[in-house]
Specification:
With 218 residues, the chain is of the alpha+beta class. 52% of the residues lie in helices and 12% in strands.
């Protein structure tokens, strides 16, 4: 409570840390993928002031970034951090799904309160609060990881294409893996590089639509 130090001995931390390290190691061994970046999102449960939870969640995300940057010997820019001071959306989801919670309508009405500190104070007076605090709040204190990858083969494709300045700018963005910005430029050309942008963003149906219209080549 009130701390942002990564403590390997706390709860299931040691097991989870080893699992995350194994994920990193596995990705580095995969020859067909390159890890572009990792998102680290920290969130807190609602008890305590919103201002304090905002500071805690931010510090915790940064501490986890430091921990894994050291493990991987990677720069901080490889990790993108974000934080959710109080994870009310996840709390609402668990309230709706948990059959042990009896007074859901009362709780959902409280969750509409605009001020988060007033909201938590009102929540603490609800009949299900003791159960929620002991069973659901711990789940809200979490760090989530998202791994962003690309296939190596995407960077090896070369094609004949109109070499106007706008198109070349799109290619430069594609090489920098700025796929959304590249797609804005390359979308009208509807060639193989447009398809690569779609694939890189996981817009597979759009990529297939472009590829079907192209001449079949090696």
């Amino acid at each position: 409570a009130g701390s942002w130090t990564v403590d390997e001995s706390l709860g299931e931390n040691n097991r989870e840390i080893e699992r995350i390290k194994a994920n990193f190691d596995s990705l580095q061994l995969k020859k067909e993928f390159v890890t572009d970046s990792v998102d680290i999102v920290s969130s807190c449960s609602p008890e305590g002031s919103y201002a304090m939870n905002s500071r805690l969640s931010k510090k915790r995300a940064e501490a986890v970034r430091e921990y894994f940057a050291s493990y991987l010997n990677r720069g901080k820019k490889f990790f993108k951090t974000d934080y959710i001071p109080e994870n009310w959306e996840l709390l609402k989801r668990y309230i709706l799904e948990d059959e042990k919670i009896l007074y859901k309508e009362q709780l959902l009405e409280v969750l509409k309160t605009e001020d988060p500190d007033v909201r938590e104070a009102r929540l603490s007076k609800c009949k299900d609060y003791r159960y929620i605090r002991s069973s659901i709040y711990p789940i809200l204190r979490r760090i989530d990881f998202s791994f962003h990858l690309h296939r190596k083969c995407y960077d090896t494709l070369t094609v004949e294409a109109p070499l106007d300045d706008v198109y070349l700018k799109g290619l430069a963005l594609l090489k920098e893996r700025q796929y959304k910005d590249a797609l804005e430029i390359l979308r009208p050309y509807r060639n193989i590089n447009t398809a690569i942008c779609y694939l890189s963003l996981d817009y597979n149906a759009s990529a297939l639509g472009v590829l079907k219209d192209l001449e079949k080549t090696p």
